[in-house]
Amino acid sequence: MNSFTSRLNSLFAFTLSVMAALTFLCFLSTFFNDHIRPVDIKVGKVTALNQVVLWDKIIERGEESLLDYHSANTKYYFWDYGNGLRGHENVTLTLSWNVIPNAGTLPKVTGAGSERIVFPDQYTSGRF
Amino acid sequence: MDYIYSFIPERIRNIPTHMDFDGQRRAEKYFQIIILLFAAVGFIWGYITQMFSHTLYILFTGVIISSVLTLIPWGMYRRNPLKWQPARDKDGNTASRPAIPAPQSQNKPKKKKLKD
């Protein structure tokens, strides 16, 4: 502490320790967040515990978070390798999302509500 | 560094840059308190707005304030200089008095203290 550089060194090291402590407190604070669930959604397909993701989107803080899509295409391929999807009665679409913190737990929230789709008995060919 | 030193004018070279021990202790205490204070305020504000960047910005202003206060060697950190013994020449004489005479004529404690 007798020279400028030694004082600078201790101040800098102290600041880094304080920032580490703040980050840890931020991490702890995420355990106390609860999340509101909205009502209208659809996306991941669920069939008897087989799940695939059909669509996703990253929304950053400040961006519009009310999404309203009509007749959108799926974002990822959705293949049926067997015959499991023909005439399937319980194809369910649900929406869930991760809340990404700066530091902390990564909760996955599932939206309330889901959409059930019944697949037809016959295959069709051609593009839609 | 020494080469640059020779170019610095005399008046700037004579500016004191040291702190005495009590000043160092006070400087360290000041910056620790200031940074902790700004960290606490910043954390509370960041929790309210849910933006960690706000916490860090408030902390950095605290770091800048405490840097200005404690890194620069202000005069207030030189208020308790060490009390050195006066200088002696090779005969043991100080500038103002001769050395104290041999101990056989007086009762003295082990440590001689020069009065000035």
UniProtKB/TrEMBL annotation, chain A:
It is found in: Endoplasmic reticulum membrane. It is a single-pass type II membrane protein. Keywords: Endoplasmic reticulum, Membrane, Signal-anchor, Transmembrane, Transmembrane helix. The chain crosses the membrane at residues 12-32. One of its GO terms (cellular component) is signal peptidase complex. The keyword DNA-binding does not apply. Pfam families: SPC22. InterPro entries: SPC3. It comes from the Eukaryota. GO terms for biological process: protein targeting to ER; signal peptide processing. Its main location: endoplasmic reticulum. Essential component of the signal peptidase complex (SPC) which catalyzes the cleavage of N-terminal signal sequences from nascent proteins as they are translocated into the lumen of the endoplasmic reticulum. Essential for the SPC catalytic activity, possibly by stabilizing and positioning the active center of the complex close to the lumenal surface. PANTHER family: MICROSOMAL SIGNAL PEPTIDASE 23 KD SUBUNIT SPC22/23, SIGNAL PEPTIDASE COMPLEX SUBUNIT 3. This is Signal peptidase complex subunit 3. It comes from Candidula unifasciata.
Automatic annotation (TrEMBL), chain B:
The chain crosses the membrane at residues 30-48, 54-74. One of its GO terms (cellular component) is signal peptidase complex. GO terms for biological process: protein targeting to ER; signal peptide processing. It is found in: Endoplasmic reticulum membrane. It is a multi-pass membrane protein. Keywords: Endoplasmic reticulum, Membrane, Transmembrane, Transmembrane helix. Its main location: endoplasmic reticulum. Residues 84-116 are annotated as: Disordered. Belongs to the SPCS1 family. Component of the signal peptidase complex (SPC) which catalyzes the cleavage of N-terminal signal sequences from nascent proteins as they are translocated into the lumen of the endoplasmic reticulum. Dispensable for SPC enzymatic activity. PANTHER family: MICROSOMAL SIGNAL PEPTIDASE 12 KDA SUBUNIT, SIGNAL PEPTIDASE COMPLEX SUBUNIT 1. This is Signal peptidase complex subunit 1. The lineage of its organism: Eukaryota, Metazoa, Spiralia, Lophotrochozoa, Mollusca.
